[in-house]
Amino acid sequence: NPPVGERRWKAPEPLPASDAVFEAKHFGASAIQVEHKGSIVKLHRQSEDCLTLNICTGDRKSETGKPVIVVFHHGDFTCGGSADPLLYGGELISEYPDIVFVSFNYRLGIFGFIDFSEVPGGEAYPDAINLGLLDQIAALEWIRENISAFGGDPGRITLLGFDAGATSICLLTVCERAKGLFRKAFVFNGSPSSAYDTPEKARALAGDLLKETQTATMEELMQLSTESLKDAAQKLWRDMCAPTCDGTLIPADVYQAWRNGEASDIGVIIGIPGHEMQVFRSFVGNRNYIDGIIATMTDIQKQDSMDDSTAKAVQAYIDAQTVSSSELEAKSKLVEQWLALCIYRNAVKLSAGGNHVHLMYWDEKPLIENLGSGSVDVAAALLGNGEALQMYGSVMNADLSATLQSLLIKFVHGDTLQLYPNEIKGIDAVNWNAYPLALIVSDGKLVCDTIENRLTEVRDLFDYIMS
Asked: If we measure between CA atoms, which residue out of 92, 86, 72, 73 comes closest to residue 386?
C-alpha cells in the first residue's frame, strides 16, 4: 500500500493480491526530495506515493532464468531516483539480453530517515529511523517473489549501487531481514561510515523539523501537507539524513559484523573514486559544498578514538597544503582522502571475514577541469548511458564502457573477471585480480596493482582508519 495519509512514516506494506491489469509504460513518481541545482531528477514529478520499480528485459528467452541486476540510485539519501536517465537499463539490456534489469525508488530525507522517539506520539512510528532501508528490502522481497514472471532467476540477484545506494547495500549485507535476497554486490563510493552509529542525529533532525514547521507533536506533523514538509526538508538539508546502525535492523558495528563473516556468502566489488569531491561541488552548489566540507572536517577532527599523533598529522597536512592553496581546498583534499580510505576499509574488513572481494579504483581525469570524475561517470560506463552523461557535463569513453560492461556481466554470471585479447574488438587483455590488488582505471586504460599509496598522503590517517 502507498505510504501516504495515515501510512506516512510507516513501514512499507505489500499491495493486496489482485488480478487487475494495468498499463505500466512510464516511471512512477520520484520520492519527495531536496532539489539541488545539479539534480536532474528534480525535474521529474514527485510524490509520497513513490514506491515503484521498473523492469527491463530483452526478448531472448532462458530456460533456467536470467541473472538479475538491481540498481540502487545515488543521491546522498536526500535526492535522486530511478527516473534519472543515467540509470536507465535499456542500453545494457540491448547489448546483454541475457539479464534482467531492475531499478526502484525508496523514501528519502525526512520521509525516509528520521527518529521521532522523543516527539510526543512518536512511539507509533518506530520504523521512521530507517524507512528508506525498509523500502529497499520490500523491493528486494517483491523481486524475489515475482521476477521469475519476467524471465529472471530469483536465486541470482546482483545489487549495483552508487553513493547512497552503495552505502545502503553495504548495510543490507549484514541485515538479517535481507538475508538471502541477493548473492552479489557491486558498490561504488559508499561505506558504512556514511551511516550514523547512534540515533542522536536522527533525533536532532526531528527536533529541527518541529521547529521549522512550528509543530509540537506527531499529530500536528501528520496534518501537514506534502508541500509544507518538502519546503522544510529543503531548508534542513544541511542537517543531513542517513540510515542509522540502530542495533535492530542494522548491527551497531557493521565493520565488526563483516569481520565476523556475517556477509561472507556475498561476492563483492568495491569501487573507490579518485576525484569525487568536485562532482559533489557541481551537484550541490558552492555554498552547500563549503558547508559540507566544514561539517565533515569537524566530524573528522572530533573523532573520540583518534590519538594525538594522528590528529597532529591531519592538522600538519592541512597547514602544509595551505602554503600553495586555500584552506578550503586543503580540507577538501583531506576529506576526499578520508572518504576513500573508509571505502578501502570495506575491502579490508570484508576480506578478513572471508568474502571474495574485488577492488576498482576510478582515477579517470575529468573532461572539464575542476568538474571531477566519479560516480556519474562510472554509472554511465557500466550501464552504457552516454547521452545521459552529457547532461552531467561529461562524455563517455565508449571502449572503456564496453570493457567495464563486459566485466560487470561476467561478475553477474559468476565468471572469472578476465578478458582475453580482442575478446572485445581492439581491447587488450584484462585480468582483474582479487583484493589486495585493484583494477585501476586511469587515462582510459586498465591495470591491476595495489592502491594504498594512491589513497592518502597522510600515513597516520591510513593506519588510524584501518585499525
From this structure: 86
How would you classify the pairing of strands 418-419 and 430-431?
Answer: antiparallel
Closest CA to 439 of 357, 360, 348: 360
Closest CA to 50 of 75, 69, 68: 75
Q: Residue 284's pLDDT is what?
A: 75
Cα dihedral value 201, 206, 208, 214, nearest 10:
-170
- The residue type of 312 is K
Distance between CA 410 and CA 69 in Å, rounded?
12
Backbone region of residue 229 per phi and psi (left: phi > 0; alpha: psi in -120 to 50; beta: other values):
alpha
Tell me the per-residue pLDDT of 9-27, one tens digit each, with 9 for 90 and over: 999 999 888 888 888 889 9
Spatial distance between the Cα atoms of 252 and 159, rounded to a whole number of angstroms = 23
Distance CA 276, CA 37 (A): 17
Q: In this structure, which long-range contacts are made by residues 392-401, counting pairs with CB atoms below 8 Å and at least 24 apart in sequence?
A: 392/38, 392/40, 392/86, 393/282, 393/367, 393/368, 394/366, 394/367, 394/368, 395/367, 397/364, 397/444, 399/424, 399/426, 399/427, 399/444, 400/364, 400/441, 400/444, 400/446
- DSSP, collapsed to helix, strand or coil, labels residue 390 as helix
**Residue keyed to cell 552504457:** 384
- Residues 81, 74: Cα–Cα separation, whole Å: 7
The C-alpha angle with vertex 273 and arms to 269 and 278, in degrees rounded to 5, equals 155
Q: For the whole model, what pTM was predicted?
A: 0.95
* Mean confidence (pLDDT) of the chain: 93
What's the mean pLDDT in 409-422?
A: 94
Question: In the predicted model, what is the mean pLDDT of residues 280-309?
Answer: 84
| Nearest to 131, CA basis, from 211, 182, 77 | 77
pLDDT grade for 121, boundaries at 50, 70 and 90: very high
> In which region does residue 253 sit, left (phi positive, over 0), alpha (psi from -120 to 50) or beta (all else)?
beta
**Would you state the pLDDT for residue 283?**
72
Which residues face 66 on adjacent strands? Answer: 152
CB 157 within 8 A of CB 181: yes
The band of 467, judged by pLDDT with boundaries at 50, 70 and 90, is confident
* pLDDT at position 249 over 80: yes
